[in-house]
Every structure is written in structure tokens, then in C-alpha cells.
């Protein structure tokens, strides 16, 4: 097992690298290295991210979509996994595009030396369109963005690369069907003038993760194909059409087209409530770990945490786990599972800002002593992010993305059959 260093000597030899980061710059998501661990000892808490799992998942998803190309979506700091190392691993495994919500996110990847094609699609009036054009970052546009994008291109005397977005039913950004012909005509004029080049047309599936709603996905695809034909009739000839997200990749091969946008799947998580990730040969990449901070004996009927939502049924010992909602662990996750020393327990009472409690169900002080390894979810314990999401009444997307900055990301690179180790203490 090896840690992924901020400055990687392999950079000049791997796809997607443009060289090492500038001196003194630590890219977002690369906060932990072997050297840092040697300086400070084991981390008190960590989100351990296995880059080998990222590469495996990208390769597995590519096998589902070929000959379509794959865009690895690394927005929101790579769904909380660390955008820079995840992007590098995804490119190494055959992804040919990177997807971001914000231009600022794409610029961070450029600053880290990653030169692969990138698309950023969510903008405001203050978006730095000029920087995006300078850095060869493709821009999604729903309509109003075309004018500031064209103005930036004119100022820089180089055409901007644009993907036009059509709203096929999700109701978020994207041009309405009614306005689509006018937006296409305007984009064609700007392309004819040399200010933009429309390289893509895209949309987003709304209910592809609900297989019983197949008819609604069918309708979205029909609307998308009609929009593409309108664009072609209006003089545009896009290189790529893309609408498929992870559920579309896994369940709707008719949505793959020229390019797919893989988000959740590259992190080894499933978008379906009734089909586990293993059904698709996907491996969860993140483990959230810490160690027991206190172990104490209490009497029967002892209250636990705010509101006394939990009281001990008998004399027992309580283990204190130093993670809370200030670290992104959802306060609402009552009875969520947690592994201590390889044994499964449940959260007792409310999760607080910095900590939560586990009822060990024993008076034996040798069980889960201070320093014992804890895993909230991850491959070693077998507890999934889906289980925590269910306990919190949310989705696995949110669960991993919300893990906060107080929890260092430690990037490892395992070999087949090797576990991720225990950077926060003794093995589970």
C-alpha cells in the first residue's frame, strides 16, 4: 500500500498530467501523505480513499459504455473523496473527460497540472468565463451564458468551447424546449463569427435510478434526440451528445450515445435502492475511520446524549467515538451501524457536533478500549454508506460528499486483495 503524494514523480508519465503542481501549492483533496503521517503519527480521524478502487470502478463503467467515452465527474471535491487524486486515478483508468459544476473547481485541477478535457456547467454572473477560455475549459450554456462567454472569447481572441444544455424534464438549468430554437440560432451565429464552437449538446436524466419509471426516461431521451436534430438543422454539428449519469450508464444503454457522465459510480456506490454496488462490480472507495476516545462503565437507565433519546437497558460500558455532525456525520442518523474492533454496533442516542456514543452491551473493560479502531463505513467492516444514508433519511451521494474538512483525506493505493490499512489506529 502506498500513499498518493501531493507532488507525484509519476506525473510526467501518466495520462492527464500537465506536470506537478506549482511550488507551495497543495491541491484540494490531497491533504495527506506518507510524510505527513510520519510527522504527526496516525490520524485521529480520516476518510481513507483507495485510488485503486477508483481506477477499478472507472474501468468497470467503461466496459458498460464502450464505444462511448467516459467523463469522470469530480465536482464537490470529488464527491468528498479529493478531486485532484481522484481525477488523476480516473484518467489513468481510461476516463477521457472530467466534469465539474463550477469553473473554480476546474481551475483547481488545471493548477494541479491536469490538462484533460473538462466541462463546467453551473454558472453565475460572476463566473470567470475568461479564465475558463484561457485554460481551455469547456462551458455548459443554457442561454444567457452565451453572451458573457462570447464577450470573454472576443476579448481573448480565441473561441470558447461550449456545450448547449436542453432541459428535457429535470427543471434545473438547461434551455426550455420553447426557447431551444432561438438559443440554437444564437449559438450558430456566434459560432459563425468565430467566438464560440459548440462541441456538445447535453441534458440530465431525472428518474433513471427508479427503474419502474422507465417511461419518463424514455420521454426525456425522445426530447433530447429531437433537440439534437433541431441543433443540427440550425447549422450546429456537435462532437458529443451526453445525457447518461450513473443510473443511465448501468440501466439504460440507449442513453450512452457519444459520452457518459459517471459520478456516483466511480466512487463505488450504487444509485439504486435495491441493487448493491457489487452487482455492478463496483468497489466503495471511501472508509471513514477513527478510534475510541473513551470507554466507561455506567449503570442501568443511564441517559445518553442530548434529549436522553437513549437510556441503557442494563449496566454496561459506553464507548465515545470522536466524530460528529461538525465532521459531516449526520445528526439524524439514529441507530446507524459502526464497527469497533471488528464487531458491529449501533449509535446510541443523538449524534453531537464532535462525538457520538456506542452502547457496548458488556461490562468487560477489555472490549473496545481507548484507542480501538473504529470504522463508520468502508470495505473492511462491510458497513456501507448506503446503511448510514438510510439511517439518516438521505442518499449515499450526500453521505460521502458531506464528510467535512476536519476529517483528513488519506489517499492509498492498494494491491488486489489488500485492505486499506488502519491510519487511525490498530487494525479492525
Automatic annotation (TrEMBL):
The record's SUPFAM superfamilies line, in alphabetical order, gives:
Alanine racemase C-terminal domain-like, PLP-binding barrel
Pathway membership? Amino-acid biosynthesis; D-alanine biosynthesis; D-alanine from L-alanine: step 1/1
What cofactor is this protein dependent on? pyridoxal 5'-phosphate
What the entry lists under PROSITE patterns is as follows: ALANINE_RACEMASE
Annotated region (Disordered), positions in chain = 1-41
Where does the record place Basic and acidic residues bias?
1-15
Give the molecular function GO annotations. alanine racemase activity
Q: Does the keyword Cytoplasm apply?
A: no
Against SMART domains, the record matches this protein to: Ala_racemase_C
Per the record, the domain of life is: Bacteria
Active site residues per record: 75, 306
Known catalytic reactions: L-alanine = D-alanine
**Membrane-spanning segments:** none
Q: What class of enzyme is it?
A: isomerase
- Record's signal peptide: none
Residues annotated with N6-(pyridoxal phosphate)lysine modification = 75
**Protein family (similarity comment):** Belongs to the alanine racemase family.
Which HAMAP family does the record match to this protein? Ala_racemase
Q: What does this protein do?
A: Catalyzes the interconversion of L-alanine and D-alanine. May also act on other amino acids.
Name this polypeptide is given: Alanine racemase
Specify the species: Citricoccus nitrophenolicus
Amino acid at each position: 500500500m502506498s500513499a498518493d503524494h501531493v507532488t507525484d514523480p509519476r506525473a510526467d508519465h501518466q495520462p492527464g498530467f500537465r506536470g506537478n503542481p506549482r511550488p507551495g501549492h497543495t491541491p484540494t483533496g490531497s491533504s495527506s501523505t506518507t510524510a505527513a503521517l510520519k510527522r504527526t503519527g496516525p490520524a485521529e480521524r480520516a476518510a481513507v480513499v483507495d485510488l485503486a478502487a477508483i481506477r477499478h470502478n472507472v474501468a468497470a463503467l467503461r466496459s458498460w459504455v464502450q464505444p462511448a467515452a467516459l467523463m469522470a465527474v469530480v465536482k464537490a471535491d470529488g464527491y468528498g473523496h479529493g478531486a485532484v487524486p481522484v481525477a488523476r486515478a480516473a484518467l489513468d483508468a481510461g476516463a477521457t473527460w472530467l466534469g465539474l459544476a463550477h469553473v473554480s473547481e476546474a481551475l483547481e485541477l488545471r493548477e494541479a497540472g491536469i490538462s484533460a478535457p473538462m466541462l463546467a456547467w453551473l454558472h453565475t454572473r460572476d463566473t470567470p468565463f475568461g479564465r475558463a477560455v484561457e485554460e481551455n475549459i469547456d462551458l455548459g450554456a443554457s442561454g444567457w451564458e452565451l453572451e458573457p462567454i462570447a464577450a470573454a472569447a472576443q476579448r481573448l481572441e480565441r473561441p470558447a468551447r461550449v456545450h448547449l444544455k436542453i432541459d428535457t424534464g429535470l427543471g434545473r438549468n438547461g434551455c426550455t424546449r420553447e426557447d431551444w430554437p432561438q438559443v440554437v440560432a444564437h449559438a450558430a451565429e456566434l459560432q459563425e463569427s468565430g467566438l464560440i464552437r459548440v462541441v456538445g449538446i447535453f441534458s440530465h436524466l431525472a428518474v433513471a435510478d427508479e427503474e419502474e419509471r422507465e417511461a419518463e426516461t424514455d420521454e426525456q431521451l425522445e426530447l433530447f434526440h429531437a433537440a439534437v436534430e433541431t441543433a443540427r438543422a440550425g447549422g450546429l454539428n456537435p462532437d458529443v451528445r451526453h445525457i447518461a449519469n450513473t443510473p443511465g450508464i448501468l440501466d439504460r444503454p440507449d442513453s450512452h450515445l457519444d459520452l457518459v457522465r459517471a459520478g456516483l459510480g466511480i466512487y463505488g456506490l450504487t444509485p439504486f435502492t435495491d441493487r448493491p454496488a457489487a452487482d455492478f462490480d463496483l468497489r466503495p472507495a471511501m472508509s471513514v475511520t477513527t478510534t475510541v476516545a473513551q470507554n466507561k462503565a455506567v449503570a442501568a437507565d443511564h441517559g445518553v446524549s442530548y434529549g436522553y433519546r437513549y437510556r441503557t437497558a442494563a449496566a454496561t460500558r459506553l464507548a465515545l467515538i470522536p466524530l460528529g455532525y461538525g465532521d459531516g456525520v449526520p445528526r439524524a442518523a439514529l441507530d446507524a451501524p459502526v464497527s469497533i474492533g471488528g464487531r458491529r454496533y449501533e449509535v446510541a442516542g443523538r449524534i453531537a457536533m464532535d462525538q457520538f456514543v456506542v452502547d457496548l452491551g458488556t461490562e468487560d473493560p477489555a472490549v473496545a478500549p481507548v484507542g480501538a479502531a473504529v470504522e463508520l463505513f468502508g470495505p473492511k467492516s462491510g458497513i456501507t454508506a448506503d446503511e448510514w444514508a438510510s439511517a439518516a433519511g438521505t442518499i449515499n451521494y450526500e453521505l460521502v460528499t458531506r464528510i467535512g474538512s476536519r476529517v483528513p483525506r488519506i489517499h492509498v493505493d492498494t494491491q488486489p486483495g489488500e485492505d486499506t490499512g488502519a491510519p487511525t489506529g490498530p487494525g479492525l
